[in-house]
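Notes from the 1:1 (GR / supervisor)

We went over the backlog. Supervisor wanted to see one worked example end to end before approving the batch request, so GR pasted a single chain during the call. The sequence is below; no edits were made to it. Supervisor asked that the structure be written out right there so they could see what the output format looks like.
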Amino acid sequence: MSLEMIEIMLPAFAECLVLVGIHSYLGIHVIQRKVIFVDLALAQIAALGSTFAFLFGIDPYSTGGYWFSLGFTVLGAAIFSLSRIRHEKIPQEAVIGLVYALAAALAILVIDKAPHGAEHIKEIMTGNILWVSWGEIFTAAAVYAVVGLFHFYYRDKFILISRDPELAYQKGLNIRLWDFLFYVSFGIVITHSVSTAGVLLVFVFLVVPAIATIMITEKLWLQLVLGWSMGTFVSMLGLYISYVADLPSGPTVVATYGLVLLLTTLGLYVLRSANKVIALRNIGLGLAVFLLAIFCFWIMGKEFQHLDHTIDKMSHSAHSSEQFHLDQKEHELMLSDIQLNEIVKGDIRVDSLMKLYSQMKNPFQKFDIAKQIFNQDQKLGSQKLIEILEVGEIPFLRQKALDILVSLSGTTFQYDALKEPSHNRPALKKWHQWWKNQF
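Structure output shown during the call:
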């Protein structure tokens, strides 16, 4: 393990340890209360708060963004505490799922009006744990410690309500009050966690260690020890894989958690099976079916790839064979073979390419020039590619231009290359706005 790797990954690993400490405990409550997706729902509500802040030009990671997120989370806590009914006809999990869906939909609607919205949505989901600062780590540790002490002091009430709510009702506890306090404290943790780790990583930190440890033991102290140990190991392994394979840290840790949970489940299945040979045989058969399914999807993908390539080739050939009416002046402006070779090699300066682009009539050569301009100058090239989206006559070329722009922006703005530009006016307006904000 190199010194460079330690310097880069150490803050992210420290943040993972802080997250593991509090989330492993809260995850046990979540599993026992049978509200598995409350973490996702509260995380999405917190993200909705930062999205509203983002709409007003407030940095989601600033103090203002934090209070927006926390305020929304408190409202979510109130909703969840009120939705719990002693003799319920509708499971509370249904309410939680509905709140999550509504929060996600509202976040998308709000972010659609903000510049660089796609990047913000991606950041909410995956976080930026690799770039967490030591100041953020210490702040989170302090906040989580206060929440932990609060739960430790009132542990009897929280544990009783999670494990046996009916007994808590019989003892006269104010369930809604204590539920509200639980969800508020839980929301405070989530608000801090989402800003660095993202929704996906926060969810697995909460749920996976709790699931694994509850399968192993019913003792709370042992569940916590095993959960913390598992979280430490998986965080270290996931971050190492992300560094070596050059993969996004958050999603890599999420995938590693999933793999470890699968291996843990299979290991417990074998150990607790009366006939271990049959258990191993079943696992082998399951693995074979899985690999067969992957192989079938691979074959299907290759076939569709070949079919799409054939259709594209035929389309390109058909459009290339079309005769374009050119007068003598247009013939003189056509590129020579030498000029085409120079464009491919990138030997022509941007200003010369811009002049050629304005003179060119052949749409295929016009696209080739726009692409080369983009390779040398993204600002000017993006402008020309958006122009192709706006006035291009050939859907094939509009799609090619769109693919290049999506690689830079991360979104299509709902532009449909198969439709005429006149039917894509809202999307084109967004593309022009994106270009102004981007450059």
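Supervisor's comment: The two ends are 40 Å apart (CA to CA).
Batch request approved.
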